[in-house]
Amino acid sequence: MMKSAKAAMLAAAMIAMGASAHAAQTPSVALGEKLFNDPKLGGAAGTKSCASCHQDGAGIEFSYKKPNLPQIINMCITRGLNGTPLPLESVEMKSLILYHQSFR
Predict the structure, then answer these.
(1) Burial class (CB in 10 A: 0-12, 13-18, 19+), 42
(2) Which end of the chain is more exposed for a tag (fewer CB within 10 A), N or C?
(3) How many domains, the chain?
(4) Which residue ranges does UniProt annotate as crossing the membrane (predicted)?
């Protein structure tokens, strides 16, 4: 039990460090594209990224019109990547939204 608690704390710290690395950045399409292709998005530990299901943005062409796009992105992160949802006001989320909007 003690090892799993330490592992969970270490994982949370690593996610926080990754988030803080982006926190100093400004949201951008380029960062959104990088995150879209990152299998570690949301602290995921697998090999899949958003691009695994949406190669070259397939299926997200009209997503920018959806008012609940942040929630959809987080659903994909949690269900598809087994990651942790992004804070809605984070640089990462804003960048992913900008990347989606770039397909207009």
Answers:
(1) buried
(2) N
(3) 1
(4) none
Global pTM reads 0.76
CATH number at residue 65: 1.10.760.10
Please give the Cα distance from 18 to 22 (Å, whole number).
Answer: 7
pLDDT tens-digit series, residues 70-92 = 999 999 999 999 999 999 999 99
Query: Residues 6 or more apart from 88 whose CB is under 8 A from it?
Result: 70
Closest CA to 54 of 41, 94, 45: 41
Average pLDDT over residues 21-28: 74
Domain, as residue range, for 54: 2-101
Residue 40's φ and ψ, nearest 5 degrees, are -100, 10
Amino acid 64: pLDDT: 87
The DSSP call for residue 55 is G
Question: What token pair was written down for 93?
Answer: 């989320």
